[in-house]
Design brief:
This protein is of the alpha/beta class and 437 residues long. It has 3 domains: 152 residues, 3-Layer(aba) Sandwich (Rossmann fold), CATH 3.40.50; 190 residues, Rossmann fold (3-Layer(aba) Sandwich); 33 residues, no CATH class. It is 43% helix and 17% strand. The protein contains 15 helices and 16 strands. The radius of gyration is 25 Å and the shape is globular. It starts with a strand and ends with a helix.
Length: 437
């Protein structure tokens, strides 16, 4: 099921040795662009029509009624509620610790620069609802926004036919637990368009106010819509399918490695599950375990499709040095280290979204209750970007305070630099302040 590629004694490029699944954003854009135009011109009615077209149900109203939120929490299974509350508590601790302090930097007498972290005013959070129910995504998006001090948070998530056009009640219950009462029953590209553009009804009443930032995972159409609006609003990322890479040696438990690779393949047929190892014996043992564990799984067909895709496989290399080089080259979303000396390996890992250390730190821990965030960079973007965090919802705003004493020592240098760049009016702006005294 999972193909083994023996790279020992071969030449290869660590960055391209494992191809990724093809996520055709450009193809999706041809479908998404007309959707955006419909929402732009027809507002809430377009969102409702498109929601009925794509989700097979027309919500009674775009905004979920407050009583539906309260009822969802009241009827939530006690064990599920306890698990959600624990996840929320841990996430709040981790994300509160990410809040950067404001600083004042004195540079000279009469010269200071202040660094102020200002929360984004209004954010729209997308929670998918197609292949599975994701209350965990509610937590991962809402908690860092609240930790940053965002004043206005709204959520868009698809309606469900089995719940009479309301989103899944577990999603609503999670929103209620977190204190988010502005929830819209719509998904897909039309939801992103509504969040960015806002939406009015036929009578001109504002149903949804435009946001300044959109975050949250979704399918290729959600990704294409976010990309289309990038620059008009902020976005977290144009996310690709889920990825896991396990870097392991002969000390790893093959049954546990196999279970972790299988776990991420549940997300999407294009999900990537990769094992990089120095042990051919472990490679064969993991493949045998996958063959034993997958049959009968609830999402067996999807798991098989993901594990047999070009983006998934086992790479056997000669040395741990090579294994680390390949791992950094792939720059995976989730990285598990299951080696005899994880700390030594960790020091040499430069590219990964989140790193899970040891056999008792599996990726599903991070999906739910580690306290870390599971909205992470995919498609190799871990080389230059971070996962969603408190700072994602902040803007650095600098306050420059100079008086005459502070400006005078650098005035001549500024004029010299401005003139060297051919920007003589810049130089004049400085000169006037001292000539007129």
């Amino acid at each position: 099921m999972l193909n083994i590629t023996d790279l020992r004694n071969t030449r290869y490029d660590p960055a391209t040795v494992m191809p990724r699944a093809k996520l055709e954003i450009s193809d999706a854009s041809a479908i998404v662009d007309p959707i955006i135009d419909q929402v732009r011109h027809s507002g809430a009615e377009a969102v409702l029509q498109l929601t009925e077209q794509f989700d097979g149900i027309r919500p009674a109203s775009l905004r979920v009624p407050a009583e539906a939120m309260v009822e969802a929490l009241e009827n939530l299974n006690d064990d599920v509620r306890a698990a959600l509350e624990e996840s929320i508590a841990r996430a709040r601790k981790v994300h509160a610790a990410q809040l950067p302090p404001d600083t004042v930097v004195p540079l000279a007498e009469g010269a200071t620069v202040e660094n102020h972290w200002v929360p984004i005013q209004r954010v729209g959070l997308y929670v998918p609802g197609g292949r599975a129910v994701y209350p965990s995504s509610v937590i991962m998006n809402v908690v860092p926004a609240q930790a940053a001090g965002v004043g206005s948070v709204c959520i868009a998530t698809p309606p469900q036919r089995e719940f009479n056009g309301l989103p899944h009640p577990t999603i609503l219950a999670a929103c209620q637990l977190l204190g988010v009462d502005e929830v819209y029953a719509t998904g897909g590209a039309q939801a992103i368009a509504m969040l960015v553009l806002g939406a009015r009804d036929a009578a001109g009443n504002q149903i949804c106010q435009p946001v300044d930032l959109v975050t949250g995972p979704g399918n290729v159409y959600v990704a294409a819509a976010k990309q289309a609006f990038f620059g008009q609003v902020g976005i977290d990322a144009v996310a690709g399918p889920s990825e896991i890479l396990v870097l392991a040696d002969e000390s790893a438990n093959p049954a546990w490695v196999a279970a972790d690779l299988i776990s991420q393949s549940e997300h999407d047929p294009l999900a990537a599950s990769v094992l990089v190892t120095t042990s051919l014996e472990l490679a064969h043992a993991v493949v045998a375990e996958i063959e034993a564990q997958v049959p009968g799984a609830p999402l067996e067909n999807q798991i098989r499709e993901a594990l047999t895709g070009q983006q998934s496989g086992v790479l056997v290399v000669e040395t741990m040095d090579e294994a680390i080089e390949v791992t950094n080259g792939i720059a995976t979303e989730h990285l598990e280290l299951q080696t005899a000396d994880n700390d030594s390996v960790l020091k040499r890992i430069t590219h990964a979204g989140a790193i899970f250390l040891g056999p008792y730190s599996p990726v599903p821990l991070g999906d739910y209750s580690a306290g870390s965030n599971h909205v992470l960079p995919t498609s190799g973007t871990a080389r230059f970007s971070s996962g969603l965090n408190t700072a994602s919802f902040l803007r650095l705003q600098q306050h420059i305070r100079y008086d005459q004493t502070g400006l005078e020592p650098v005035a001549k240098g500024i004029q010299t630099l401005a003139a060297s760049e051919g920007l003589h009016a810049h130089a004049e702006a400085i000169r006037h302040r001292f000539e007129e005294m």
